[in-house]
Amino acid sequence: QVQLQESGGGSVQSGGSLKLSCGASGDTRCMAWFRQAPGKEREVVADMRMDGSSTYTDSVKGRFTISRGPGILYLQMNSLKPEDTAMYYCTTNEYCVDHAIQVANWGQGTQVTVSS
């Protein structure tokens, strides 16, 4: 059984930084961060495979960095913008996917709020 626990969310001003963490057990072949803003669909932010390869959505490239270690996933978020405000979810899956409906395991989420 996969268990995921996020931490590190909070409120910051535009241009600030936050680092999200996720403790994970079970199948962690692909680990990813998704986010959901009010009134919007969940979207993948970044993902990382066991071989260390990663992908990012265009809007966060150059600002966010995903990394992982045994049983843990991180998301370093720099130069935060108000449009990054969302609930951020840690996920694991057999393989990396683009759509939330394809994800097998979700954490409970951690809120990130960026004020202008």
Brief summary:
The chain has 116 residues and is mainly beta. The protein has strands at 3-7, 10-13, 18-25, 30-36, 43-49, 54-56, 64-69, 72-77, 86-93, 105-106, 110-115.
**Low confidence ranges:** none
Cα-atom radius of gyration: 13 Å
| Estimated helix fraction | under 10%
Mean pLDDT: 95
Oligomer: single chain
Shape, per Cα inertia axes: globular
Tally of alpha and pi helices:
0
Largest sheet data: 7 strands, mixed
Distance between the termini: 40 Å
Order of helices and strands: EEEEEEEEEEE
For the secondary structure, the number of strands is: 11
Strand content: over 45%
| Helical/strand content category | mainly beta
Describe this structure in words.
This protein has 116 residues and is an all-beta fold. The chain is 0% helix and 53% strand. Strands 2, 4, 5, 6, 9, 10 and 11 form a seven-stranded mixed β-sheet that branches. The chain has a four-stranded antiparallel β-sheet with strand order 1-3-8-7, with no helix packed on it. Strand 7 and strand 8 form a beta hairpin.
Question: Layout of SSEs?
Answer:
Elements: E1 3-7, E2 10-13, E3 18-25, E4 30-36, E5 43-49, E6 54-56, E7 64-69, E8 72-77, E9 86-93, E10 105-106, E11 110-115
